[in-house]
Each structure stands twice: as structure tokens, then as C-alpha cells.
Amino acid sequence: MSRFTLILALVVAGGLFAAASRSDGLHELENRILQVVGQSLHFLSFARFAHRYGKRYESVEEIKQRFKVFLDNLKMIRSHNKKGLSYKLGVNGIIYLFFFFLLYIAQNCSATTKGNLKLTNAVLPERKDWREAGIVSPVKNQGKCGSCWTFSTTGALEAAYSQAFGKGISLSEQQLVDCAGAFNNFDCNGGLPSQAFEYIKSNGNFCMSCSFMICNF
Predict the structure, then answer these.
(1) Transmembrane ranges (predicted)?
(2) CATH for 105-111+134-217 (3.90.70.10, 1.20.1250.20, 1.10.10.10, 3.30.70.2740)
(3) pLDDT, tens only, 30-78
(4) Quick one: which of 123, 113, 115, 214 has its CA closest to 171?
(5) How confident is the model at residue 24, as a pLDDT?
(6) pLDDT tier at 19 (50, 70, 90 boundaries)?
């Protein structure tokens, strides 16, 4: 056997071992969930969701509860997507949460009381979708951090930059989470884009996401 053949064989064997290890982890999780919920519809989808997003359940009762919420939200997603609306829903890392829980999480995001925009007599189009202009950034994931205010801020700035200079950028939400507290923002417990803009204006610079990455998941 040549040296090249031996190296290739070792690489293939290593890949197969890694794949087998991953499969074993999923298989064990599938078996555990099967023992709790039985051969129910979508139990495999739930197991694969839990495996993909690294969910850990401490008890039989928690598995039952999370599985029920998963099914309810999956039903809601499918019902919504059949309506042919302008947007679609999908499975992500928070599908196991109660919908009302997401609505009532305190995020310190009270709206500003007064705007400072100056209205003009410009004629506006009946509709405008900035996605069609290619300036809207891809969807990002805030994880478990209540930092929606940072994503609103960076999304607006990224679109404005793309519109002005003809190229896209990705700005750092984590910089706002870590550094904008002096402007009445509360890291993962909420804040306001208007106050984030004040921080950016005062700070004088803003990092790209690749150099100041999100870590508050």
C-alpha cells in the first residue's frame, strides 16, 4: 500500500468514525424521546430538532412539555404557511418555547415618545420593498439574548451603508451589547435603537461582526 493510499484510508476511516459518533448521539436521543412520548407523529422531527440545537432535557416531564409545545408551534407554522402571506415561518432554535412566553419577556424596549423626523412633500410610491433593492442584510440569530434592539440598529445601518456605497457589510451587535450600557441600554435585557445610535455617534466607530462576534447565546 502506498503512503498516499494509507493516508487516504485513514482520513476516510476518521470521517466514518466521526459520522458514526454523531449518529450514535442522535440515535440515543431518538430512543430516549421515543420511550417518553411513544411512536407519536413528529417525534423524530422533535428529536432531530433537539439534537441539532443542542437541547438538553432534565426530566420526563420536561420532554413531554417541550414536545407538546413543539407540536403546537409546528401546527401554527404549517397553518400560517398555507395562507400564502408575504412571509413564511420555519423551525428554529426557539420553537420549543410557548408563544406567549416570547410575547411577555421583559426587554426594556419602550418606544421613544417623540420623533425628530422632518416631513417633506415628496411623492411616495404605493409600495416599497427594500429587499428588492438588495440592501437588506440576511436574517441573523440573537439566540437567548434579549438584544433585538442591537439587530434593529445594525440592520438599519447596514441597509443605509449598502444604499450609499453599493456594497453590503455586517456590523457587530455584540459591540452594542457590551459597550452601549451608558446610553440607557441593558445588554441582553433590552435597549433601544435610538439610544444605540447615540452610542455609535459618541463612540465614533463601529466594529464589523467578524472582529467582534456575537457570544451572548
Answers:
(1) 85-106
(2) 3.90.70.10
(3) 888 889 988 888 889 999 988 888 888 889 999 998 898 899 989 999 9
(4) 214
(5) 60
(6) very low
Q: Rounded to the nearest 5°, which phi and psi values hold at 157? A: -70, -40
Domains of the chain, residue spans: 17-102, 105-111+134-217
Tens-digit pLDDT profile for residues 178-214:
999 998 888 888 899 989 999 999 988 888 877 666 5
Closest CA to 97 of 120, 74, 78, 119: 74
* 30: number of Cβ within 10 Å: 17
Please give the radius of gyration of the chain, using alpha carbons only, rounded to the nearest integer: 23
The answer to whether 59 and 86 have CB atoms below 8 angstroms apart is no
pTM: 0.56
Topology adopted by domain 17-102:
Helix Hairpins (1.10.287)
